[in-house]
Amino acid sequence: MEQSTNSHFQFCPQCATPLDTIQRRGGTRLSCPACGFALRRYPVTGVGIVVLNGQKILLGRRARVSFGSGAWCIPCGYVEWGEDVRAAARREFLEETGLNVDIGAVYAVHSNFHNPNALTVGIWFRATVVGGNLQAGDDLDAVDFFPLDTLPEPLAFPTDRLVLDQLKQETLGPATDLFASGKLYKRAGFNP
User: Cα dihedral sign for 19, 23, 25, 28?
Assistant: First the structure.
């Protein structure tokens, strides 16, 4: 896959030589002609928490953020450097919702391409609330439980739609092979 050479880097961070654009493995990347350093971009890891109350899911409305302001999402955030993904999920959920949770199994993993300047890999965990008081915080200005069959719009992230559609199929209706048919991906705006 081609990596964008649009970068704020103009000089090698190791030896200060101006970087060149090179072709490598079917793509382009910035590389130092003097020391061989290659600038690689990798997706950041994000985590989300799926909390159900019967057939309702807890969602948050994004505020004061660069992407998706005013749109709804499964509470989520980034994994900090050196942080365990489950600890990050617990921390982010507490910051955004005021609730403490026990982290369960991984529910879904998806690549996020909605923001080409900040690609992420999202890991959604199932969780159970064990304490706290429901209150929006951090990147959210509202939190509430919504029935899976009447979710608020718009949703901030196409991959949340994938997770929510999967939950709906498992919770509300007969299981069908929507992933294999590509219907979930197409509904979320992807073309596999």
Answer: positive
Total domains in the chain come to 2
Whole-angstrom Cα Rg for the chain? 19
pLDDT in tens, the chain (192 residues): 444 444 578 999 999 999 998 887 777 888 999 998 888 888 999 999 999 999 999 999 999 766 778 899 999 999 999 999 999 999 999 999 999 999 999 999 999 888 888 889 999 999 999 999 999 998 899 999 999 999 999 999 999 999 999 999 998 876 444 454 555 555 555 554
Tell me if the pTM is above 0.70. Answer: yes
* CA distance linking residue 86 with residue 12, whole number of Å: 35
Q: If you ran DSSP here, which 8-state letter would residue 2 be given?
A: P
CATH number at residue 56: 3.90.79.10
Q: Could you tell me if 23 and 87 lie in one domain?
A: no
Residue 161 within any structural domain of the chain: yes
Residues 177, 82 share a domain: yes
Phi, psi of 83 (to 5 degrees): -100, 140
Residue 127 in 3-state DSSP?
A: strand
Note whether 138 and 66 are same-domain residues.
Answer: yes
